Amino acid sequence: SLLLMAGITVAVGLCRRLTRRRLRSRPRLCTFFLEMFSTFQICACTNELCLLGNVEPKPHTSLTLTYGFTVLHGLTLTGSTCNPCGTLQPMWGGGIPLEMGGLKIGAQFAAAALARVFMHFIWSLEMAQPHFGAISQGCSNPMQTTETQAFCIELLFSVVFQLTILRVESVSPKYRVHLVALLITMLVYAGGNLTGAIFNPALAFSLHPNCFYDKFLSYSLVYWIAPSLGKFLILHVF
């Protein structure tokens, strides 16, 4: 599993470098592919990390891996948002045109679906012990509480996360990535057993697509609307 995630990271890094070289004269297409590759890395690695949640000792192993790979993503995916909620901020403030923002969000959801298909193919090969039976899980039902509580948790986590991102903008990048990783790890520890502590609509769709098919209204309310509402609350206040 660790070799698989490392291989995905290396492959995405090569694709991003090639995209910058080949599509330098076509900024929109370059932005689309950079965002898509970056979101693909996060979704694919997180899909694999979810299979390692029961590795002993629990929860130390999964939290350590969460922190480590969050730092890795932060160091290797500079310049990419990988979160539709994060893309809303520059759109709301006029930093990027509406068309460019929609292009990024489209790339993020396309990458989320692509990552899920790719990981299903990898799991079907059953190269590692955690892959056995992973495809047959269906909807893993990440909500282990009521819809109202799940909505409030994802809303609160989104507000805390987005507020922290704003507050650490002035911090040196080499320290900022560790602060963000530590925050994400703490949120996963606090609410991972209740909602999964995702607060990323594209990532939620990649992790639990079957759940959106079965209970679209409730899952879109918790994992799409709640994080987006949290982002708008931050934008309105600050």
Using the coordinates above, name the CATH class: Mainly Alpha
State the end-to-end CA separation.
Answer: 41 Å
Largest sheet: none
Order of SSEs: HHHHHHHHHH
Tell me the CATH topology: Glycerol uptake facilitator protein
Evaluate the radius of gyration.
Answer: 17 Å
**Unreliable residue stretches:** none
Oligomer kind: single chain
The mean pLDDT is 90
What's the CATH H-level homologous superfamily?
Answer: Glycerol uptake facilitator protein
What structural category do the secondary elements indicate? mainly alpha
Number of separate domains? 1
- Beta content: under 5%
Helix content: over 70%
General description of the model:
It is built from ten helices and no strands. It has 238 residues and is mostly helical. It has one domain: Glycerol uptake facilitator protein, CATH 1.20.1080. The relative contact order is 0.14.
Core attributes:
transmembrane, membrane, globular, 10 helices, single chain, Aquaporin_11, 74% helix, mainly alpha, 238 residues, Glycerol uptake facilitator protein
Short description:
Helices cover 74% and strands 0% of the residues.
Secondary structure elements and pairings:
Blueprint: H1 2-22, H2 27-51, H3 60-76, H4 84-93, H5 98-125, H6 147-167, H7 173-191, H8 201-207, H9 209-214, H10 216-237
